[in-house]
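Two folds, back to back.
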Amino acid sequence: MVQQLLASGYCISTGIDAYQVYKNKSDTPWLKDNDVLSLVDVEPEDIEYFKSHINHAQTIVGYKAGSSWDSEDPEN
């Protein structure tokens, strides 16, 4: 659905709690410098908490299909 919206010319706006997004319950970072945020291992109650504490907007304007993310070579 995200790809269809972007391909149709729409952008997607979202937001995060910038103070909490970089660590999970075990205090290990979710994100490093060039990583993409994944909520796969995030507990549902944490997602609900984020919804009420959003303080950093994000806009998705494009995507790269057909390959996995390589933080060493993010452009290719």
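---
second:
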Amino acid sequence: MTFETVLRVYRTTMKALLVALIAVLLGVMTLQIVMRYGFNGSLIWAEELCRYLLIWVSLLAGSLAYERGEIAAVTLLRDALPRRGALCLATLANLAAAVLCGVLVHYGLRYAALVGAQPIPALRFLFQDSFGWAAWTVPPVYWVYVALPLGMGLLGLRLLLDAGRYGLLLKRGGSVDDLYGGAPAELPE
């Protein structure tokens, strides 16, 4: 299995997961609006679920956004450097960003473990207080907080893979043009 095949499977799986999460988010939001304005009542768990789904979607989509070049970048220095220097800068920038992602994974996991045992507030109210269900039936906030280390881990892995690819380009005598198909990326007008 080649690297490109693994990336293609990853992209397809991640896109399907993100579409499913966004569909659930849209469905719950629509249901909440209908309940609130159509039936003059609301679901106590809907807004909290939408907030958590939005967190997951945002953090999981980060690596796909990076891959597509949709993350904000300051290219002033890169564009001012010679082509090989720009490739060196891109490699160093990816390595530095990957280190930052690693720090966020480490502390994100520590934080999730530290406070993650608490129940999700709206679900605790719904399951325990309203229906008298056992405490173990309420999902912990760990599943919300673990989105950060997972999303940053995926982004960090992608940054490291690209840094390795940039390093190979440098070794083979490539330049920054090889990254962008012949010309550095331009800002949209």
